[in-house]
Amino acid sequence: MGWRSVGVLLCAAVFASCGGDGAGTGGQLEQPGAARVFALEGFQPTSEIAEGKKTDVSFAIEQPSGKPLTDYAKGSGPHTGVHVLYVRTDLSTIIHRHPPVGADGKIDDPVTFKEPGKYRVVVDAYPATGVQKNFQLFDNVTVAGKAQDKPLPAFQQSQKVDGYTVSIAGTPKLKSLEASLMTVNIIDPKGKPAKFTPYYGALAHAIFFRQGSLDYFHTHVCAPGAQGCTSTLGASQVTGTAEKPGVLNVGVLLPVAGRWRLFVQVRADGHLLTAPFTLDVT
After folding, report:
1. Which DSSP category does 151 fall into?
2. What does the DSSP assignment read for 78-129?
3. CATH code assigned to 158-281
4. Cα(38)–Cα(69) distance, rounded to whole angstroms?
5. How far is CA 245 from CA 186, 192, 272, in A?
6. Was domain 36-143 assigned CATH 2.60.40.10?
7. In tens digits, what is the pLDDT along the chain, a chain of 282 residues?
8. What does DSSP say about strands 216-222 and 236-244: parallel, antiparallel, or unpaired?
9. Rounded-to-integer distance, Cα 179 and Cα 271, Å
10. Is the dihedral angle over the CA atoms 7, 11, 16, 18 positive or is it negative?
11. Residue 228's pLDDT is what?
12. Residue 274 exposed, middle or buried by CB count within 10 Å (0-12, 13-18, 19+)
């Protein structure tokens, strides 16, 4: 899955011919028209929303042709449809959704925000056909109330989430643009390895946001042999797998150095767990 990008730039005239022949008035090149891009259309809400109250976040994706995108990739894996993520700008919390797409291309996602503050909205779309597998579009929502940013904690190897112990094996030595696998162990409240069941088409999701810039990257952990779980950045690829209970081999492939917040999301024994970790990338 690719990192943060505004959309797919396409030529306004025809797909096969993006250049010109130099013809113009007085031998001068004509000023090219603005390139058409994928864009969020009719994004709502545009005003502050209430904390703790269900809010409909709605939009459509407008294609470079001006028509709404209605045809999305389908299947049992995670690389399908539209993924919508809401991340508070201090990286203290995320909401991860895969809302349905209407026949007219409209997406309506009822969401309850439990904390005030500003949230970055990431729309990660997987069209059925196109020049690239997926692309991201962005907007923001603001939840009314007194928001207090929380400082990002340093790396902690292990933490408790709803009685489960989620641990990273060792101290990761991560480099930008370099694919690597990171082992995450999850132990249930009884001390036994957790049993994973699919959540949004994968056994686990690894969602990364960079501190400050909010750059985004998202990889998946799947059962051995599952299709559609390889993430790509440039010429590099990584595939996360889970071959036995309680152990996730999480793929990491980040575009730039900096401090990143990783949210590991997994459905363990029927419980949805979200475990955040701070990672430094050189």
Report:
1. P
2. SSSSEEEEEEETTSS-EEEE---B-TTS-EEEEEE--S-EEEEEEEEE-BSS
3. 2.60.40.1930
4. 9
5. 8, 9, 15
6. yes
7. 444 333 443 333 222 222 333 333 344 445 555 557 899 999 999 999 999 999 999 999 999 999 999 999 998 889 899 999 999 999 999 999 999 999 999 999 999 999 999 999 999 999 998 666 889 999 999 999 998 888 999 999 999 999 999 999 999 999 999 899 999 999 999 999 999 999 999 999 999 999 999 999 999 999 887 877 888 888 888 889 999 999 999 999 999 999 999 999 999 988 899 999 999 999
8. parallel
9. 29
10. negative
11. 72
12. middle
Q: Tell me how far the alpha carbon of residue 72 is from its chain's centroid.
A: 16
Alpha carbons within 13 A on the beta-carbon side of 90: 11
Residue 21 to residue 18: CA distance in whole angstroms: 10
**C-beta separation of 117 from 147 below 8 A:** yes
The reply to whether 158-281 shares the fold of 36-143 is: yes
CA distance 34 to 13: 11
This prediction has a pTM of 0.85
Query: What amino acid occupies position 92?
Result: S
pLDDT of 77 reads 84
Q: Please tell me the distance from the alpha carbon of residue 36 to that of residue 63, in angstroms, as a whole number.
A: 8
The ranges assigned to domains in the chain are 36-143, 158-281
Determine the 3-state secondary structure of 25 from DSSP.
helix
DSSP state letter for 277: E
What CA–CA distance (Å, rounded) separates 159 from 167?
7
What CA–CA distance (Å, rounded) separates 50 from 217?
A: 29
Other residues' Cβ atoms within 10 Å of the Cβ of residue 131: 10
